[in-house]
């Protein structure tokens, strides 16, 4: 009996020791793998986000694609998939570019929505590449999102940094996954912002891995043009089209210039920005639009935002200390928020002029607006 008891004890002790050794070994290997590949956690987060987005698409009936049918590389790209409901930009949010919007509708959107009208011709198929080029802040990204929203396509907002991997051959596989995933999700628009940073002019100083990734990307891009039934569009935006490789420009036959807005366009943009804002009746947007030469749509929004902040500053300077304390104590109540907004004065012309002069001074110091400072009458 004593020998049996000791043998059982020894067996239990051996099992415990083996369990501890196995646990320590597993944790050590896991720690070493994380040290070897520091992006392991980000990859897991990307895969989780991709699964959520694809389940949302499958649940809404937009695509029958199963998560299990995607490779690990396609899951990494799918993390940048934007659900159609999350695209809040429409054509109503874009002002002053009616001609460009109409051309996009006829060139890109109509062949996608009405395929029955273009089945008998290879020349009227939607372009496989669309380039939006123009100065920064003029709405290129908004146009891309609005195009995807209007066409009802899936939208992959591709971050090109995800295509770069330190392991040899991984970048090429990720580049290929962009197209294989887009084909599975079609109709699909793959949007690459600042595309010149990724597909710039090739030269002999390029790293071998970068050159191979670009070649892989362009090879799969050519594969789209050979399949007329494939509805995948690569859309890029840049303010330096001259830096793009000629081979890329050939693959983007539909090019649209998004210019700096002129005075009538700036007037439409200002009207859109201030449409739902409290504005004084003495504000003259026509005069303001003529005095904002060289301002992009993004600049005009910032101008109006600064002008709106001035009225809040005036209110906070003039509010009594006891009233300010009451507001701070009741800031979670809807009634107090309504009282706060009602107490604010509307945006005046002086606010807009003050914001305009401040932005012009800043632009002149940056060298982006070589014009003298002007005051409005």
UniProtKB/TrEMBL annotation:
Topology relative to the membrane: Single-pass membrane protein
Homology family: Belongs to the AAA ATPase family.
Cross-referenced InterPro entries: AAA+_ATPase (IPR003593), AAA_lid_3 (IPR041569), ATPase_AAA_core (IPR003959), ATPase_AAA_CS (IPR003960), Mito_OM_Translocase_MSP1 (IPR051701), P-loop_NTPase (IPR027417)
Compartments reported by the entry: Mitochondrion outer membrane
Single GO BP term: extraction of mislocalized protein from mitochondrial outer membrane
Main location: mitochondrion
Family matches, as Pfam families: AAA (PF00004), AAA_lid_3 (PF17862)
Protein name: AAA+ ATPase domain-containing protein
PROSITE patterns, per the entry: AAA
One GO CC annotation: mitochondrial outer membrane
Transmembrane segments: none
Keyword terms of this UniProt record: ATP-binding, Membrane, Mitochondrion, Mitochondrion outer membrane, Nucleotide-binding
GO molecular function: ATP binding; ATP hydrolysis activity
Organism: Photinus pyralis (Common eastern firefly)
Lineage: Eukaryota, Metazoa, Ecdysozoa, Arthropoda, Hexapoda
Alphabetized SMART domains for the sequence: AAA
Limits of the AAA+ ATPase domain: 126-264
């Amino acid at each position: 009996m004593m020998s049996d008891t000791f043998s059982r004890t020894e067996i239990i002790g051996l099992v415990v020791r083996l369990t501890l050794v196995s646990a320590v070994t597993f944790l050590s290997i896991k720690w070493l793998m994380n040290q070897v590949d520091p992006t392991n956690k980000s990859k897991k987060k990307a895969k989780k986000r991709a699964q959520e987005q694809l389940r949302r698409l499958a649940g809404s009936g937009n695509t029958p694609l199963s998560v299990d049918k995607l490779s690990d590389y396609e899951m990494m790209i799918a993390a940048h998939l934007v659900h159609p409901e999350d695209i809040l930009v429409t054509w109503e949010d874009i002002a002053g570019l009616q001609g460009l919007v109409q051309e996009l509708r006829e060139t890109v959107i109509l062949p996608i929505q009405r395929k029955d009208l273009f089945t008998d011709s290879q020349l009227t198929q939607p372009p496989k590449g669309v380039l939006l080029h123009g100065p920064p802040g003029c709405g290129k990204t908004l146009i891309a999102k609005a195009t995807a929203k209007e066409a009802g396509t899936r939208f992959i907002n591709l971050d090109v940094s995800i295509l770069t991997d330190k392991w040899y051959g991984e970048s090429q596989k990720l580049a290929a996954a962009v197209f294989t995933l887009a084909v599975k999700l079609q109709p699909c628009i793959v949007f690459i912002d600042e595309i010149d940073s990724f597909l710039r002019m090739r030269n002999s100083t390029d790293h071998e891995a970068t050159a191979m990734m670009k070649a892989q990307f362009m090879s799969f891009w050519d594969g789209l043009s050979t399949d007329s039934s494939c509805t995948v569009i690569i859309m890029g935006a840049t303010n330096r089209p001259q830096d793009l490789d000629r081979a890329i420009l050939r693959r983007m036959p539909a090019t649209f210039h998004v210019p700096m807005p002129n005075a009538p366009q700036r007037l439409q943009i200002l009207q859109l920005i201030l449409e739902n804002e409290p504005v004084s009746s003495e504000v003259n947007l026509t005069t303001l639009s003529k005095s904002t030469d060289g301002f992009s749509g993004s600049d005009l929004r910032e101008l109006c935002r600064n002008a709106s902040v001035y009225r809040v500053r005036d209110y906070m300077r003039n509010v009594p200390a006891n009233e300010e304390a009451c507001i701070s104590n009741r800031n979670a109540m809807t009634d107090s928020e309504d009282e706060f907004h009602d107490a604010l004065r509307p945006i005046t012309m002086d606010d807009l002029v003050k914001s305009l002069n401040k932005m012009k001074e800043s632009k002149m110091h940056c060298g982006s607006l070589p014009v003298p400072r002007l005051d409005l009458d």
